[in-house]
Known about the structure:
By secondary structure, the protein is an alpha/beta fold.
Amino acid sequence: MVVIVTGKINSNKTTKMRQLYEQNRLGDGFIAIKNMVHDTVHSYDAMQLSTGEKHLLIKRKTFFEDDFTVGCQIGPYLFNESTLFHIKNTVETLLKNKVSPIYLDEIGVLELENKGLHTTVDMLVKSNTALVLSMREDLVTPLQNKYKFDVQKIIKV
């Protein structure tokens, strides 16, 4: 069972994901917290919902100072390889502990290209665990076709 939170860019998908988790505090997972410098995106932190622990996930190239190993890139955004591994390892532990649902924010173009969190998403879908995933509305059909997940509900924000 997959619940999808969708909308356009900057439509508060992450806020909705956080609200869904906080309604009953069941499950666990990660949301992407945007960090701004004036009116420019500086970076994103991956925040684990149950603990509030944050790890630098993405940094805009203009702010990058060789402070992490780049796992992949999309446009001006560089992805921290160690945080991608941390998310994957944490999700594996959540699955072993039968935590449900599992939340994963901002699935998108990278995953369609087998990059970013692709292996994590693939593992989650194959596990048949209840999922709450966020993605842009124009990517719902391509991602559903790629991962073959059964959508229980779509929440558009």
